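seq as requested:
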Amino acid sequence: MTIIKVEINQQKNLISVYNNGKGIPVQIHKEHNIYIPELIFGNLLTSSNYNDSIKKITGGRNGFGAKLTNIFSRKFIIETVDTKNKKKYIQTFLKNMSEKLEPEITAINKDEEDDYTKITFEPDLKKFKMKDLEDDIVSLLKKRVYDSAGTTSHKISVYLNGKKIQIKSFKEYTEMYLNNKLFNNQIEYPKLFENPHSRWELMVTMADSQFQQVSFVNGISTTRGGTHVQHVIEQITQKIIEQISIKN
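struct tokens:
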């Protein structure tokens, strides 16, 4: 995958998410006897990645969130290109996944089409007690797109409403949170960036009044922190205490 595109149309109440990673196989599933894209997005109890005892580098439940999106949408459209089978697949679900239209499957020229998957949905706003896509929700969705730009590989370009987000690294992403000076603009603060492991990236700086953290695990925002944050903080505070003890 090299591209992620998110479109949020507040006026039309439409959201779409696109990526050009490998397309979903457009073929009948041997066990369930339906097309695999429909199985993934339109059938319950077919998600995976539930074993939390094994080490993972991805988050989520591989289809769980997508099905919930379908259930909470008035309209939900799957679109995928599978160059291996030389097919393009489009299917529409309506009324909170209670109705499904027959998939449109067309042959493609492998040399002219690239693999991709795109999901377009119209949230059922009544389920969320909303009359329209409110500004706060849209802001939260936009933040999530920026999060994706900051936590995915620098080789992946992320677009929001047709405009490329100019963040190429997690370090650049962290800079968006940081002002130039602290304590009423009197002190230039230190910013310490570390990449101690291929799976860890850290930015540490001073806070104005109390401890704050912004963290992600496997691309998922962990707003409440967790053991991964404590793992870092305890090491830092231990070293600071040692230095203070030496000097005082």
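The longest helix spans residues 227-247.
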